[in-house]
Write a structure and sequence with these properties.
Elements lengths: L1 E2 L3 H11 L10 E2 L2 H12 L11 E5 L7 H11 L4 E6 L4 H10 L3 E4 L4 H12 L4 E2 L1 H28 L3 H11 L4 H8 L3 H15 L4 H10 L4
Parallel strand pairs: 1-2, 1-3, 3-4, 4-5, 5-6
């Protein structure tokens, strides 16, 4: 199914795709609302044999309901239908929102007809497809999210340690034994050992060596 609010664009895409072997365009829609109505109609055909499209080529900028919002609805209610975004926007926000909405692919409107057909066939096989500039943006966004997640995890682990435990951990990193730390802080050896055990339990490490390594690598103190 082709979804684009410009009939001349749909005509051009149809002309290109009809020349490709094994591809059949079963419907078109001018906007998101019409696309959803047509999906309902295909699902309720009188002969009982639903002919839902395998792939929807979706323009991202549509009047009313956007391509991203439409994709979100399709991903939720028509899980067997895969959406390939077609957009003029090489923009991180549009791309990442499309991926989060459930799009199986994202290509730019200045892509070649060969790439469009390749993207359609790739998605039809169950894989995802993003043109090279888009893939770079997705990877960059993923790495930023990963760094943010790692930072949040480190802050969470830091918050699990009391000031006294951080002080003991500092001396453990310096290579001091429990007895030396106890003398330094004027505590009993048992108290220091209890603090060590509590830290290992909360940070989910098995021994003092792992505790020290985590503290150093993740800058817990």
């Amino acid at each position: 199914m082709l979804v684009d609010d410009h009939s001349i664009v749909r005509d051009g895409i149809r002309l290109l795709l009809e020349q490709a072997e094994g591809l059949e365009i079963i419907d078109e829609a001018n906007d998101g609302e019409e696309a959803l109505e047509k999906l309902k109609a295909h699902l309720a055909e009188e002969n009982g044999k639903a002919q839902l499209p395998d792939i929807i080529l979706m323009d991202i900028s549509l009047p009313g309901m956007s391509g991203i919002q439409t994709t979100q609805v399709i991903s939720k209610h028509y899980k067997q239908v895969r959406v390939l975004m077609l957009s003029m926007h090489n923009n991180e926000d549009y791309i990442l929102r499309s991926v989060e909405a459930g799009a199986y692919g994202y290509i730019l409107k200045d892509s070649s007809s060969d790439e469009m057909i390749k993207a359609i066939r790739t998605i039809a096989s169950g894989e995802k497809y993003y043109s090279s500039p888009v893939a770079s943006i997705i990877l960059s966004g993923y790495m930023q999210q990963l760094k943010k997640s790692e930072k949040n995890s480190r802050v969470e682990r830091q918050s699990k340690l009391s000031n006294k435990e951080k002080e003991i951990l500092h001396y453990l990193i310096d290579g001091m034994s429990s007895r030396e730390i106890a003398e330094k802080l004027q505590l009993s050896v048992r108290t220091v050992d209890n603090h060590r055990a509590n830290m290992m339990r909360r940070l989910q490490v098995r021994n003092a060596a792992e505790l020290v390594r985590m503290a150093v690598e993740e800058k817990l103190i």
